[in-house]
Amino acid sequence: MDFQAHSLKSSDDSSTSSKLVLYSFWRSSCSWRVRFALNLKGLSYEYRAVNLGRREQLSPDFERLNPLKYVPVLVDGPVVVSDSCAILLYLEEKYPEKALLPADLRLKSLNLQVGSIISSSIQPVIMMGLLKTIEEKFGPEEQLPWAQSNLEKGFNALEKLLKDFSGQYALGDEVYMADVFLAPQISIAIENFDTDMSKFPTLARIYESYKKLPEFQASSPERQPDALH
Ligand SMILES: N[C@@H](CCC(=O)N[C@@H](CS)C(=O)NCC(=O)O)C(=O)O
């Protein structure tokens, strides 16, 4: 763990190596989005693990990188960006090759809408910290139904939104930013929360396409250096 190296205040630290550094936790879906996008763009990066189980995100050094104390954080030379949405938009501008946002305005806004539904209305209401609070306040048996009902609400909306636009992937036959948000979220819904995907045929179908993508496979939790097998 080395959070110190990037907690420099200087904004003109151009001497810093230009290699991208990603602070990530193997099981974090927000980190997974960024890993998937970096792979799709063919950008190599150094992986720095932040062990959320050991609460390393609360250390003063990490807090200097992200005052909200969440992963992921991306460091690109003097630029430090936290929050997966901000990171993805940063990457899209800085590294426009293999664009994840299409030029067509309608498609672009649908991509942003899918990302926003997942990052604002699904992930925050099923995140580990909140589920722990639910367990403490209402009992362990309340965790799973809470997560499942919130996933179902979000997935119902996504299914309706995407069914007339999807192809091999969420918005046609190209992989876009919507897919970067969807793929980890669907995987987590299935693996961690036993979500019945037969209710969401479009999402279930495109998830089969994601599983075949080498960029997605390489971004999966169990392939990360900090994975506990
Ligand atoms: N909106 C943020 C959310 C980040 C977030 O919730 N990160 C979680 C892991 S997916 C985290 O660091 N949790 C640590 C904690 O709850 O203390 C993003 O998209 O990056």
What labels would you give this structure?
229 residues; 51% helix; 4 strands; alpha+beta; binds glutathione; 4-stranded mixed β-sheet
Short description:
With 229 residues, the protein is of the alpha+beta class. It has helices at residues 29-40, 60-65, 84-94, 105-126, 128-138, 143-162, 177-193, 201-212, 214-219, and strands at residues 20-24, 45-49, 73-76, 79-82.
Structure, described:
- By secondary structure, this protein is α+β, with helices and mostly antiparallel strands.
- Helix content is 51%, strand content 8%.
- The chain has 9 helices and 4 strands; from the N terminus they run E-H-E-H-E-E-H-H-H-H-H-H-H.
- It has helices at 29-40, 60-65, 84-94, 105-126, 128-138, 143-162, 177-193, 201-212, 214-219, and strands at residues 20-24, 45-49, 73-76, 79-82.
- The two termini are 20 Å apart.
- The model is unreliable at 7-17 (pLDDT under 50).
- The protein binds glutathione.
- Glutathione binds next to helix 1, helix 3 and helix 5.
- Pfam families: GST_C_3 (PF14497), GST_N_3 (PF13417).
- Residues 104-229 form the GST C-terminal domain.
- Belongs to the GST superfamily. Zeta family.
- Its EC number is 2.5.1.18.
- This is glutathione transferase.
- Radius of gyration (Å): 18 Å
> What is the straight-line distance between the termini?
20 Å
Number of DSSP-assigned strands: 4
Major sheet: size, sense and barrel closure? 4 strands, mixed
Any low-confidence stretches, pLDDT <50, length ≥5?
7-17
Order of SSEs, N→C? EHEHEEHHHHHHH
